[in-house]
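Subject: Protein record for review, amino acid sequence with backbone structure tokens
Why sent: The fold of this protein is of interest and is recorded here as tokens.
Enclosed: The protein record, placed directly beneath this head.
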Amino acid sequence: MSVIRCTSIIGSYTERLTVPNRITRADGHAFTTYSPTYETYEPSLVDLVVREDGGLRLTCGRGTFPWQKQSYPPSDPAPVVVPAVVLGLTHTFLALAGQLGDEHAAYQGQWRLGLRVDRMRNVLAADKMSPGMGWYAHPYSRDDYVRVTSASTGQLVETPREIAERLVAPLLRGLDVADTYIPVKPN
């Protein structure tokens, strides 16, 4: 079993990225929780592709999910996103990219980095949900969130939190939770 581990600690979020299955893909190798032998549960899907050209891609199925308010009469679930998961996985991925580039590929050049979260229209931040009381948040106003930046391998190694902030801060502002997470503070 192949396992890649990288730990991220941001605020109250701790992520240990463990992906147990290694699958050969047309563009490289995937380290993934996906397995053709069992049904994939999307919220638990993590798929890290290491491409033959040195590129990396992380896909996570836990971007948005339905949250059921405890109320009577029952209401439709509200789509929510957990900002700490988006920020934590982004930080973990950036730190991993820096580590791979620096220690294993001897690459010290520039990286083009991006974050995309789909199905965002009318999504609320889970931080703004109150069990039994509903929500007091502003819904996100676009279909997708896309942000791109660049950084050197040295920056990925030394300052992954600041790079994660550049990628995620506009999303957090759009969800009205930026004050909770920005600036990114270690535990």
The radius of gyration is 17 Å.
